[in-house]
Amino acid sequence: QVQLVESGGGLVQAGGSLRLSCAASRSIFSINAMGWYRQAPGKQRDLVATITSGPTTNYADSVKGRFTISTDSAKNTVYLQMNSLKPEDTAVYYCKATVYSGSGYRDSWGQGTQVTVSS
């Protein structure tokens, strides 16, 4: 199990930027993959970006070229830099960590941080 604490959400105008942080309770080298997901009211939780060892990154089409996922191993933290924000980016953003153990993959989620983009 990995404890995750997100921060950095807030209210921003369209075209602005925010950086989300997700601090993990263990070394990110022991985590197989980390990612950011978001959930808007009345909608399902969708993938925003993931990062695995390598590092290999993956982005939703809607955020490519605007969002960047990265890690800081010294701080056991994953970041999501969000630029050129749009009102449709408004959602609760969740951090996820996936760890492989002998019995398979296990996911841990953070509590979420609200991002609101005003037009």
Task: Present the secondary structure layout.
Elements: E1 4-7, E2 10-13, E3 18-24, E4 33-39, E5 45-52, E6 56-59, E7 67-72, E8 77-82, E9 91-101, E10 104-109, E11 113-118
How many β-strand runs? 11
Q: Fraction of residues in helices?
A: under 10%
* H/E topology pattern: EEEEEEEEEEE
The oligomeric status of these chains comes to single chain
Classification by helices and strands = mainly beta
From the spread of the alpha carbons, the general shape counts as: globular
> Which segments are poorly predicted (pLDDT under 50) over 5 or more consecutive residues?
none
Describe this protein's structure.
By secondary structure, the protein is mostly beta strands. Helices cover 0% and strands 58% of the residues. The protein has strands spanning 4-7, 10-13, 18-24, 33-39, 45-52, 56-59, 67-72, 77-82, 91-101, 104-109, 113-118. Strands 2, 4, 5, 6, 9, 10 and 11 form a 7-stranded mixed β-sheet that branches. The termini are far apart.
Give the tags.
single chain, 119 residues, mainly beta, 7-stranded mixed beta sheet, 4-stranded antiparallel beta sheet, globular
Give a summary of the structure in a few sentences.
This protein is an all-beta fold and 119 residues long.
